[in-house]
Amino acid sequence: MTAAPPARPARRVTAHLVTAGPAGPGVLGARVLFGQDPADVVRDLGRLSPHTPLRAVDVLTELVEAPDGTPLHVDRVVFAEAGTGAAWPTAAGRTLTPSAAELLADEEFPPDTRPRLRRFAAYGIVTDPAGRVLLSRIAEGFPAAGTWHLPGGGVDAGEDVRTALRREVAEETGQDGEVGALITAASHHRVPPSGYEIYAVWAFFRVYVADPGPARVLEENGSTCDCGWFGPEEVAGLPLSTTARRGLAYMVVQGGDGA
Predict the structure, then answer these.
(1) Which residue stretches of the chain have pLDDT < 50?
(2) CATH of region 116-253
(3) Which of 5, 9, 19, 133 would you label with 91, given CA atoms 20 to 30 Å apart?
């Protein structure tokens, strides 16, 4: 008798705010619903002004089992206000809420709404010892075809976010990169005139390739048709995807260090 394949994990996203009070650091948390920006969720949690600057300090992947046995994949995005980020290593050992049991319930949508696509994706600002930036080009037949993109893509169910990014960089560019610090986290919500309503949470990481080789696409029949190393001055003249513009612009605004 053939064993049944393992159940595909349910996917959830949560947002968290590091707090620093007289009793020591703590972490607030809430579920991120379809279309919500994780940073806005955190500001509501902390009763902060809509314009309060936040810094994304970590993304954690939890693979857990709900009380009824349902496998659950939770991507937890952690933010901090200015001056509280240093408390995160201490607070990181705490059990984060909401729990698996609290997250298990499905969202309720009005019955007349269009189909929805949701994804959690990781992208890399990939550099080498010469300061070059590694980009991939989106193939025909995919959204934003022909534009230059950050290496990366969707995190598969049951896959750690950093493992997913390293895999995507290898598949799209043939490079072995070391995933470093989280730069920022953002969301993207698009409602086209027809078709699916699209919502994504993007995590941007530093990726360093210590021993770069010729960039080459290894995946077959995928969304990447070309890739290459570019100097900073060359990147400025390229047609960039929305994702690439968001990630690279953040690096420029933050003076290149994401702090």
Answers:
(1) 255-259
(2) 3.90.79.10
(3) 9
